[in-house]
Amino acid sequence: MKLLVTGGAGYIGSHTTAFLAEAGHDVAVLDNLSRTNRSVLAGLADILGRSVPFFQTDVRDAKGLDRVFEGRGFDAVLHFAALKAVGESVHRPAAFYDNNVAGTVSLLEAMDRHGCDSIVFSSSCTVYGEPDTLPVTEESPIKPATSPYGATKQMCERILADVAATGRVRSISLRYFNPIGAHPSGKIGELLVDGPSNLVPYLARAAAGATGPVPVFGTDYPTPDGTAIRDYIDIMDLAEAHGAALGRLVSRVGASSEAINVGTGTGRSVFEVIAAFEHATGVSVPTNHVARRSGDVPAVWADPAVAESLLGWRTKRTLEQSLRTVWQWQTRTTPAAQPSDAP
Ligand code: NAD
Ligand code: WQD
């Protein structure tokens, strides 16, 4: 397939590009480089042995999109381009609505102008808010968004459903849980342009001595060990889910607009993740127990049954395998890090 990956120089987009290009698809990347840099494109070229066509364009730039789409006959778009930091969205809501919602509308209009009718959209488990029951299924209620970021994902899903109802576009919104890990080659991983805020990159940095201790946000949750529970999914498992979604879209199976959970089906506490990291790498992680982080829910993990039945996809990598790739990526950027005598 001829594919356009927006946000393809970002974390999830670059790993998905690597997977799809290695699977034989003809992939082009579009990114405005606002949250990444060209080193990712160099890493991709290293993995693939050739460079990937790249367009430095903003998805809100209609003329720029016309130049990208013109004559290229894309069969589908994978739309990753968005701002994603929940905290930042609270301080810059208008920028998030403009980038994420107006950007998606602009992209859909360009697809319409150029006869491209299939899109895979990066949605998030954040649409479920604090779920009433676990695991979360696609039937779980969509809760009022607690952040502008979460609202942009809900709005984009709604826009995609409305556009699909015209019969002109088919879409699959993949609701990612917590992506972690890096490409097994060690050549691409998660760039932390604004410093780490998510748990796993933070603990890798702390283990490498590049930051202070990891703040463990809350040890008084109603969970077995008191720390919050999430569903951590390996980045290459996630990349593979996009291949499966594309297959379903272009073979025109199912409804014209679908939303599918992409997770492992297993919840892990913060303490479990830290212990798994130490076990997988032999490196100890300094921690500091602090108060809960505002806005965090106690527990959320996916029921991946729909993904398995509709996409024929399920995760393959273990948490420890993922954490080893995180450490491999981390030690490339901080070569001084050494294993200690941790368990
Ligand atoms: P990322 O920041 O690494 O990648 C996003 C990329 O999009 C960046 O390279 C950025 O430069 C680009 N971009 C942003 N706005 C753009 C615009 N207007 N035009 C063109 N390019 C633009 O983030 P990521 O973790 O790879 O996330 C990818 C997608 O997955 C996002 O839509 C995000 O909301 C969603 N998502 C991420 C997570 C997560 O935990 N990482 C979880 C659920 C959903
Ligand atoms: C995981 C757990 C923290 C950092 C975010 C977005 C969500 C989705 C995925 C985009 C929580 C705890 C964290 C730290 C900690 N993204 N933690 N110390 O918040 O589950 O999800 O990414 O759609 O919308 O909110 O991920 O990695 O930040 O936190 O104790 O330094 O680790 O409290 O329980 P989160 P996270």
Structural notes for this entry:
Strand 5 (118-124), helix 6 and strand 6 form a beta-alpha-beta unit. Mean pLDDT is 95; it is low at 336-343. 39% of the residues lie in helices and 16% in strands. The radius of gyration is 19 Å and the shape is globular. A seven-stranded parallel sheet has the order 3-2-1-4-5-6-11, with helices on both faces. Helix 3 runs parallel beside helix 5. With 343 residues, the chain is α/β, with parallel strands linked by helices. It contains eleven helices and 13 strands. Nicotinamide-adenine-dinucleotide (NAD) binds at residues 6-7, 9-13, 31-36, 58-60, 80-84, 99, 103, 122, 124, 176, 178-179.
Top keywords for this entry?
343 residues; alpha/beta; 7-stranded parallel β-sheet; two-stranded parallel ribbon; 11 helices; 13 strands; 39% helix; disordered C terminus; binds nicotinamide-adenine-dinucleotide; binds UDP-4-deoxy-4-formamido-beta-L-arabinopyranose
By DSSP, the count of extended strands is 13
Q: Characterize the main sheet.
A: 7 strands, parallel
- Strand-pairing-aware structural class: alpha/beta
Strand content: 15-25%
* Basic shape: globular
Low-confidence stretches: 336-343
**How many helical elements?**
11
Q: Report the span from N to C terminus.
A: 47 Å
Summarize the SSE layout with pairings:
Blueprint: E1 2-6, H1 11-22, E2 26-31, H2 39-48, E3 54-56, H3 62-69, E4 76-79, H4 86-91, H5 93-113, E5 118-124, H6 148-164, E6 170-176, E7 178-180, H7 199-207, E8 214-217, E9 229-230, E10 232-234, H8 235-250, E11 257-262, E12 268-269, H9 270-281, E13 287-290, H10 305-311, H11 319-333
This protein binds nicotinamide-adenine-dinucleotide and UDP-4-deoxy-4-formamido-beta-L-arabinopyranose.
Nicotinamide-adenine-dinucleotide is lined by residues 6-7, 9-13, 31-36, 58-60, 80-84, 99, 103, 122, 124, 176, 178-179.
